[in-house]
Amino acid sequence: MISSRASGLFRRSFILAFLLFLPGPLWAQIAPGVPRRDYWGVERARFRREMLGEVNERLDRWCSAWEADDVEELADHYAENALVLLTDEEIWGPEAIQTALEESLPEAGPIAHELVDFEVSGSLAYVLGRFRYTETNEETGARVRRGRLLTILDKQSGNWKIRSQVFSEESPD
Question: Taking the model in full, what pTM does it have?
Answer without folding.
Answer: 0.71
